[in-house]
Amino acid sequence: MSVIQGTEFYISKRVGKAITDYNMLSEGDKICVAVSGGKDSLTMLRVLQDRQAFVPIKYKLLAVHVDMGYPCQHPKILAEYFKKHDVEYHIEKIDILKGKTRKDISCFWCSWNRRKALFSVADRFGCSKVALGHHKDDIAETILMNLFFHGEISAMNPKQELFKGKITVIRPLAYVDEEMIVKFSKELDFPHHKCACPNSATSNRTKVGEIIKDLRKVCPDVKTNICRSIKRIKTDYLL
After folding, report:
1. What's the pLDDT score for residue 68?
2. Domain total for the chain?
3. Residue 59 sits in a domain of what CATH number?
4. What angle do CA 128, 132, 135 make, to 5 degrees?
5. Strand-by-strand arrangement of the 59-67 sheet
6. Does 126 fall in a domain?
7. Per the domain annotation, does 77 fall within a domain?
8. What is the largest CA-CA distance in the chain?
9. What is the pLDDT of residues 108-162, one digit of tens each?
C-alpha cells in the first residue's frame, strides 16, 4: 500500500473530511469521475484512487473525459495517462461547436452540455455518483457570482441528489484551496495542456476570482468567510 505524504496528505485529509461531513460515499459505489484534463480533476482522481487503498468504504472509479470538440490534445494525453496509472476510463465525444461559432459559446452552454454528457455516461455505466473537481475557491466564487450577477443567495453544494436520487453529484475537493492543488499538480507533473476555451480570460468567474484575490490582501480568511456565510444566515436581518 502506497503511503500518502506531503501535499497529497494535506489534500487527502480535507477530502476525507468533506466526504465524511456530507456522507458522499457508500459501500459499493461506482463513481463517474469527471476529468477535464486540468489540475483540479486530475488531483481529484489521484486522491480518490490513492484513498481506495486504506479507507473502509470500498468503491470503484470510472474516469470520464468529455471531448467537447475543441482543437486540443486532451483525449489522447488523458488516455495515455489513464492507462499508465491503471485507471478504468471512457472518452465521450460530443461536438458543441457544430453549427455554431466560438462567439456563440458561453460558459453556461459548455457546462450544460458537459453535464448532460456526464450524466448520460454515468447512467450507461451504472455509476450512482458523479464526482466534479470544484474546490473551495470555486464555491466561494459561485456564491459571489450568484449574488452579483443573479441577485440571489445560493452556493455550489458539496453533495446534491438529482433525478430523484438516481444520480448524486459530489465535490470531494470542497474543502481544498486551489493553491494547494496548484502545488500538488506541479509536484506530480500532471500532463500539460493548453486551455482551448475562448472565454477563459474574460468570464465572470475570472473577474470574481480577481476580486477575492485582492480581498485576501486585507482579509486572508475571505474565502473561508464567504463559504461559511451561507451556513450562518441571520434571518432577523433579512428583508
Report:
1. 82
2. 1
3. 3.40.50.620
4. 140
5. 89-93, 59-67, 29-34, 129-131, 167-170, 159-162
6. yes
7. yes
8. 56
9. 778 888 899 999 999 999 999 999 999 999 999 999 999 999 999 999 999 999 9
- In whole angstroms, give the CA distance from residue 138 to residue 136: 5
Distances 224 to 40, 122, 125 between C-alpha atoms, Å: 19, 32, 36
Q: Is residue 89 part of a domain?
A: yes
Range of the domain at 107: 6-237
Angle at 56 between CA 55 and CA 61, to 5 degrees: 60
Question: What sign for the dihedral angle of Cα 205, 208, 214, 216?
Answer: negative
- Overall residue count recorded for the chain in this entry: 239
Q: How far apart are CA 141 and CA 181, in angstroms?
A: 16
Query: What are residue 36's phi and psi, to 5 degrees?
Result: -80, -25
pTM of the model: 0.91
pLDDT in tens, 35-45: 999 999 999 99
- Residue 88's contacts (CB-CB under 8 Å, 6 or more residues apart) are 60, 61, 62, 63, 82
1 in a structural domain: no
Count the Cβ atoms, other than its own, within 10 Å of residue 72.
16
Question: Which residues have a Cβ under 8 Å from the Cβ of 140 and sit 6 or more positions away?
Answer: 212, 222, 223, 226, 227
Label residue 115 exposed, middle or buried (CB < 10 Å: 0-12, 13-18, 19+).
Answer: middle
> Hey, what amino acid is at 116?
K
C-alpha 91 chain-centroid distance: 17
Q: What letter does residue 41 receive in the DSSP assignment?
A: H
Residue 89 near residue 127, CB atoms below 8 Å: no
Kindly state the DSSP code that residue 182 receives in the 8-state scheme: H
Residue with cell 500532463: 191
